[in-house]
Amino acid sequence: MTAAWAVTAAFGAYFCMYAFRKPFAAAAFKDMVYWGVNLKVMLVVAQVLGYATAKFIGIKVIAEMTPARRAVGILLLIGIAHVALLFFAIVPFALKPLLLFANGLSLGMVFGLVLGFLEGRSLTEALSAGLCASFILADGATKAVGSWLLSQGISEFWMPFVAGLLFIIPLLIFVAMLSRIQPPTTHDIEHRSERLPMTAADRSSFLHRYGIGLGLLVLVYLLITVLRSVRSDFAREIWQSFGQPAEPADFWQSEMIVALGVVLVNGLSVFIRSNRYAFFASLAVSGGGMMLVALALVLRSADLIDGFVVMTLLGLGLYLPYVAVHTTVFERLIAMTRDRGNVGFLLYVADAVGYLGYVVVMLVKNFASPKVNFYDFLATASWLVVVVSTICLLFCGIYFERRMRGLHDYSSPK
């Protein structure tokens, strides 16, 4: 099966999944309050809490998942999420957050199932970069679809379900394509190691062996996940804080630039044959992303760039390390160590911590500083993330450089 087929299938399937997750964020739910919390904040928190719960469950489920069950699992989970959106439209006001929780709980394991078709290959970074492009582009595109449906007179509560209906047939096609992707070749296994299901003992052993370095990576991922999620879920409010109307075009045009830049940079690591060099290069790319975030904040504070450029630079800076983790960091770590493992397990450990942290930050923000606009909140938090993440990446590089001394690099010429 060609790489073009694989990346098209993965991109399309995950892009369609976003139509069952993100369109609701295009709605304002203005002046609606739930238990003293702004309804939109509550809905975002409920969905992300469900998503985070799925990530904790996925640490075991994704690590142990066999290839034959992945396609059916994807369709089953998205189907449950769509039913939750139907009930979201019709249940009483007080129950709506519970339906968004169920929606997030169902969708939280889809990425790991899709990624399982791509990892452990010589072209994994390029394939995974294409997959990651789907959630960058779909984030803006599906919210644009949501905005368009609202402009057509669809209510805020029915709009998420209707948006999902538009993507059912494409979803079925792309998942069918995923199911036909062939497993890694012997050449792939030789250079990237075989990716096998992990038992509880395997997972414990891996975490114990590389705990300090993984802890630093997870902390960076947590911080970036929080900022990326604020920028994503409250894009409408951030655009409006710039004095711009948050038109559908705003959502997808900035994300198109972000996706192209991030996919190009992270995808290029496929040309680095050495697993060790590729791993450390991905840490450097992550540090470069933090520098872009700092640049965006400095230029904005000096009033040298407008809202569109700010959102684009912030997107590039945050998605460079976020996607590097998905495409290269964990992929090359396993290939470099040759330990029994799979990317899905490590990614779900990081995701579980990241999304849980986002829930906590949203609740603290709502109760501690509810009147602070989302850009000011994002800018303040970004400076903290830039400093802490840069330090963590530096020490992470030092830790793994020392741990990998003397270890044979199976991707280097013999």
From TrEMBL:
It comes from the Bacteria. InterPro entries: DUF5690. Coiled coil: none annotated. It holds the Pfam family DUF5690. It comes from Pirellula staleyi (strain ATCC 27377 / DSM 6068 / ICPB 4128) (Pirella staleyi). The chain crosses the membrane at residues 37-59, 71-94, 100-118, 130-151, 157-178, 210-231, 251-272, 279-299, 305-325, 345-365, 377-400. This is Major facilitator superfamily MFS_1. Keywords: Membrane, Transmembrane, Transmembrane helix.
